[in-house]
Design goal:
- The structure is a single chain.
- This protein is mainly α and about 160 residues long.
- The protein has one domain.
- The chain contains 5 helices and 2 strands; from the N terminus they run αβααααβ.
- Strands 1-2 form a two-stranded antiparallel ribbon.
- About 5% of the residues have low confidence.
Length: about 160
Amino acid sequence: MKTSIRLLIVLLAATTTAAIAQQPPVAYPSKGQSTSQQATDKSACVTWAQNETGINPAAASQPAPQQTGPAVGGGQRAGGALRGAAAGAVIGGVANDNAGHGAAVGATAGVLAGGARARQAQRAQNAAATSQQSQSMQTFNHAYGVCMKGRGYTVD
């Protein structure tokens, strides 16, 4: 239960951070730049920040891919089934002289445990992807802000 709560907190923090990081810094014209000049400067700074960081903000601001479904964790489920069947066969053979029934029960339990491990691993992987996306946008936004400051804007 504690692991689930911790993972939920990490996912919530990553999602909140990603939402905040995706907002570009606001640049106020502090030297009387016209609207036309502001548009030119903004475009030039977006291009410069992309070239300097290698980050395309349009691609980086897309939601991180979330993987779910039956394909996720197939190996962990199969491994859990094998381990569970082996343990169940031994226990079933010793306890009530029925290794086959013990193996079936153990395999079922192993599949469930393997599936739980697979889902937990996938949630952690999705959280890491979201965090990486957020870091990329922070890097891009910093470069953009530096460029706009260099062109005479106050950046917030």
